[in-house]
């Protein structure tokens, strides 16, 4: 299958051969403070990430204030156990009046600001801010009317695929294309918070690329940066990670978020992984030229006179290159030197 064509998000090419497009997700790490949210954006700007992402919903646009079993998170959930959905989203949401200053601050830094809308009114807000792209959250992948509404804007779409079957991903991609989307990135994702690396199943990345022919990235909720680096080695072209100022500050997403210095390492190391993934190659590279000259070969290691016998005491395999191949030692031992030879001379056929 041919390599997917890159797409463009906010002036950045996203696709094979390009620097990984790193999306820093603020989510609920603002902990209810606009000043903190702005500080997170400022910190992201110093890491080399290209984009900052928000989530656009209110508690009453994403759920209802109900307390039945279906509306509560199981008690033993590590982060959000025992809470009902309305309470959680009321705490975690980014107030709509914050979006304008947050988008403006991101743009001041040269970051690409965009968001995940969770209902049509959120799309209207983001369109008023000239959002350059839209993100479909994993749980919203099955909301095909919402996907069509995002696609109708004509903006690039980034679609997370956590929990989704191949058929559900196919339906979401079809809905996006029906709605008018021509630039789509799919993100492999494990929608658990935090996620165990063993559940990352990164071979999904080439499988998605083969199935859909679009650029593939990773939305990652594992601790650290190991999984994203491995994902880029398997062809991921975009990485989304949650970011906070300090995990010790707490908050709904802090446990699986990176601190700014860690995000900077992710930006550096994923690009290293991308640059390392060249084609299979054998034989010396130009960069190995100096080391190639240090290969072992046969050298005269003691002063010898003409007629003297070649022995293990006066000819040895040592570094550097320049003499006969090391495997000729059995052939040359016992022969005689044709002339006087000084110690430190590469052994050649004309000397014996």
From TrEMBL:
- EC? 2.5.1.56
Q: Name one GO biological process term.
A: carbohydrate biosynthetic process
One Pfam family name from the record?
A: NeuB
Annotated GO MF terms: N-acetylneuraminate synthase activity; N-acylneuraminate-9-phosphate synthase activity
Fetch the SUPFAM superfamilies from UniProt: AFP III-like domain, Aldolase
What SMART domains does this protein map onto?
Answer: SAF
In which domain of life is the source organism classified?
Bacteria
Q: Key word rRNA processing present in the record?
A: no
Reply yes or no: does the keyword Metal-binding apply: no
All copies of the AFP-like domain together span 297-352
Which parts of the chain are coiled coil?
Answer: none
This protein's UniProt keywords: Transferase
UniProt-recorded name of the protein: N-acetylneuraminate synthase
- Taxonomic source organism: Pseudonocardia alni
């Amino acid at each position: 299958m041919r390599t997917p064509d890159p797409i463009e998000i906010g002036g950045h090419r996203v696709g094979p051969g390009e620097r990984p497009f790193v999306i820093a997700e603020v989510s609920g790490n603002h902990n209810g403070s606009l000043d903190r949210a702005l500080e997170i954006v400022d910190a992201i700007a110093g890491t080399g990430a290209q984009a900052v992402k928000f989530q656009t919903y209110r508690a009453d646009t994403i759920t209802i204030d109900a307390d039945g079993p279906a509306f509560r998170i199981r008690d033993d959930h590590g982060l959000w156990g025992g809470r009902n959905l309305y309470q959680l989203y009321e705490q975690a949401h980014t107030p709509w009046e914050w979006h304008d200053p947050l988008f403006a601050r991101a743009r001041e830094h040269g970051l690409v600001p965009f968001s995940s809308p969770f209902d049509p009114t959120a799309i209207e807000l983001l369109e008023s801010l000239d959002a350059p792209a839209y993100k479909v959250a994993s749980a919203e992948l099955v909301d095909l009317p919402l996907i069509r509404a995002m696609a109708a804007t004509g903006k690039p779409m980034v679609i997370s695929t956590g929990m989704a079957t191949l058929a559900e991903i196919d339906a979401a991609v079809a809905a996006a294309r029906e709605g008018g989307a021509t630039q789509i990135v799919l993100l492999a994702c494990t929608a658990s918070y935090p996620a165990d690396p063993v559940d990352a199943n990164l071979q999904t990345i080439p499988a998605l690329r083969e199935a859909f022919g679009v650029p593939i990235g990773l939305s990652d909720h594992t601790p650290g940066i190991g999984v994203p680096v491995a994902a880029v080695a398997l062809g991921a072209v975009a990485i989304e990670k949650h970011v906070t100022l300090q995990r010790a500050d707490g908050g709904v997403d802090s446990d699986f978020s990176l601190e700014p210095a860690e995000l900077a390492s992710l930006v550096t190391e994923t690009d290293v992984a991308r640059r390392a993934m060249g084609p299979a190659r054998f034989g010396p590279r130009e960069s190995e030229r100096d080391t190639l000259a240090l290969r072992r070969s046969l050298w005269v290691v003691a002063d010898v006179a003409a007629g003297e016998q070649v022995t293990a005491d006066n000819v040895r395999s040592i570094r550097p290159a320049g003499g006969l191949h090391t495997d000729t030692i059995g052939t040359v031992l016992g022969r005689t030197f044709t002339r006087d030879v000084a110690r430190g001379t590469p052994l050649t056929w004309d000397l014996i």
